Every structure is written in structure tokens, then in C-alpha cells.
Amino acid sequence: MPSHRTRLIAALDTSSYEQASRWATELEGRVDAIKLGLEFTYACGLDAVKKLSARQELFLDLKLHDIPNTVASGLKALAPIHPALMTIHALGGPKMIARSRAMLEEAFEGNDSRSRLLAVTILTSMNEQSLAEVGINATPLDEVVRLGRMAVRSGADGLVCSAHEITALRDALGDAPELVVPGIRPAGSSTDDQKRIMTPAQAARAGADWIVVGRPITRADDPAAAAQAIQDELRTAVP
Ligand SMILES: O=C(O)c1cc(=O)[nH]c(=O)n1[C@@H]1O[C@H](COP(=O)(O)O)[C@@H](O)[C@H]1O
């Protein structure tokens, strides 16, 4: 049973700066970090990312996946924003991950709060059938552990996975890799396009370092109250 606190990241998925800014203000003090991703960044730009994250810890989730040089150079360009966490796809392979880590070490030399590199394993919107559709004939669990081992060995500081794989990843890799877990749905909420889901309490008991929650917060009538309810659930889940 984990004894550390599972922290809450709110995914602010919107193309509107005003909307994201409103959420960020409402959620300040109620979430531990905000996540800005493809929709916000493409629509509003990196200056807006920088501005919005001035007061809160930032997970910049752009899921880079390209040849090693292109991904590492992309990360170098993002480094001045200084997100706490950034994502690349584990499927880019060991060289892409190793070059990315080396680039971040270089970009943050002399700064002991380097952005941490997360490798996305298998998206939480995929199940065994969706894996077969892209030619991967394995269970999500086996594939996540296989990719997770490779990614951490290659230099990833942590992994994005579903809560279903936390126990197996901890058995394989120990406590050091930071496990960031989307596909979280409080009991009774809509699953949307997510396939491998768990509740906040289940993810906390499994040992998630962070959970990522978007629509259950942002589509709630009262996003601040929804975030607070998740924090309360996390707090009481682990004695
Ligand atoms: O990297 C991610 O954050 C991510 C990986 C993954 O496997 N699944 C996943 O849902 N996410 C992100 O987590 C957030 C989940 O949002 P909701 O489904 O609205 O809670 C979205 O911003 C996704 O981009």
C-alpha cells in the first residue's frame, strides 16, 4: 500500500484562452498542477502557455513522436517555458528517448529543477482490440510494461499509463519512475472516449504519483467543487 500522496493534475483542454484562464483561476489551490495539451497550444500558442502557467505547476503534454533529432530539438525549443513535466511517445524508441533526455539535461544544466521527461506508453483510449487494429497482438498490460521498461532504461523520468498497469510497473521498475495516470473517472461519471479507466481512489491505492483529470472537472457545473471532491477522495483513499 503506497504511503505517498497522489497529486491531481487538471487537463485544461480547450481552444479558448479565456476559458482556460477562467478554469486555472477557479482551480488554483484545488489542483496540484495544470495540463495544457495539443488543443490549447495549437490554438493559443506558446506565449499563452507561458502566461497561463505563471502561477501553477505545468504539465505540457505535446506527446512528441518523430525522429530523435527532431524530437530532441523540439524539446530544446520548449525548455524556456520550463514545464515541470513534458511528454514524448515511448513508441518513438530508445534512441529518441535517450536523445530527448540528453537534450533536457543540456538545456537545464546548472538548474536543479529540470523539466522531467514522461514517456506515454499505450494511450488510455486503447484496449486489446484497438491494439490489434494497429498490429500489436498483446494485452495493454504486457505492452505497457514492455514499453515502460524500455523507456525508463533509455532515460525517461516517468511514464504515462493507465491505473490498471501501476502495480505491474512498480514490480518491474520500483518506486523511482514517476507514474502519471489519465483515464480517471469518479464513480458514476461518463467514460467518454477512455477505455482503461479507474476511479481516483483506485488509482491512489495502486500508487499513482499523479492523476490527470479533464472532462469530469471542466464539464462539471462547478469545476472547483469537482476538483475538491477528487482531492477529498484521494486523501481518504490511502490511510
Ligand atoms: O498524456 C496524457 O496526458 C494522456 C495520455 C493517455 O494515455 N490518455 C489521456 O487521456 N491523456 C490525456 O489526459 C487527459 C484526459 O482527459 P479526460 O478524459 O477529459 O479526463 C486528456 O488531456 C488526454 O490528452
Automatic annotation (TrEMBL):
The active site is at K63. Pfam families: OMPdecase. The keyword Lyase applies. It catalyses: orotidine 5'-phosphate + H(+) = UMP + CO2. It is an enzyme of class 4 (lyase). Substrate binds at residues 13, 35, 61-70, 124, 185, 194, 214-215. The keyword Nuclease does not apply. InterPro entries: Aldolase_TIM, OMPdecase, OMPdecase_AS, OMPdecase_bac, OMPdeCOase_dom, RibuloseP-bd_barrel. SUPFAM superfamilies: Ribulose-phoshate binding barrel (SSF51366). SMART domains: OMPdecase. Belongs to the OMP decarboxylase family. Type 1 subfamily. Catalyzes the decarboxylation of orotidine 5'-monophosphate (OMP) to uridine 5'-monophosphate (UMP). This is Orotidine 5'-phosphate decarboxylase. It comes from Bombella dulcis. The lineage of its organism: Bacteria, Pseudomonadati, Pseudomonadota, Alphaproteobacteria, Acetobacterales.
